[in-house]
Amino acid sequence: MMAVPRRTQPYRIGDLVTGTSYVAPQNRGREMPEPITGRVVQVGSGWAGIDADQAYVWVRLPSGRERQALIRDLQKVTL
Fold first, then answer.
1. DSSP per-residue letters across 13-69
2. How far apart are CA 70 and CA 78, in angstroms?
3. With 70 as the cut, is the pLDDT of residue 74 above it?
4. CA–CA dist 2, 60 (Å, integer)
5. Left if phi > 0, otherwise alpha if psi is -120 to 50, otherwise beta: which for 53?
6. How many alpha carbons lie under 13 Å from residue 23 in its C-beta half-sphere?
């Protein structure tokens, strides 16, 4: 059975998420992926299934810094 591509984003602005940040391979000499927890502040691309494996969001950390993360590397935090 084939997986059906996601048609809507799994996260909305303000959602609390946890997972691993994304760092493009060409930038990994300066920066490495790291565990993150924070609020979604911007929805990136990839929602219509065209490039769903590259779909991303921006997450604001408690420090105020923002990190990019692929949606496949995140999960919602339920309080």
1. TT-EEEEE----GGGTTT----EEEEEEEEE-S-TTSSSGGG-EEEEE-TTS-EEEE
2. 19
3. yes
4. 34
5. alpha
6. 13
Of 20, 32, 34, 26, the closest CA to residue 70 belongs to: 20
Query: pLDDT tens for residues 32-68?
Result: 999 999 999 998 765 555 566 678 899 999 999 999 9
Give the integer Cα–Cα distance in Å for 77 and 8.
19
Q: Return the bridge partners of 20, or none.
A: 35
DSSP state of 74: E
- Tokens for 18, please give them: 């946890």
Calculate the CA 10 to chain-centre distance.
10
Q: Which pTM does this prediction carry?
A: 0.79
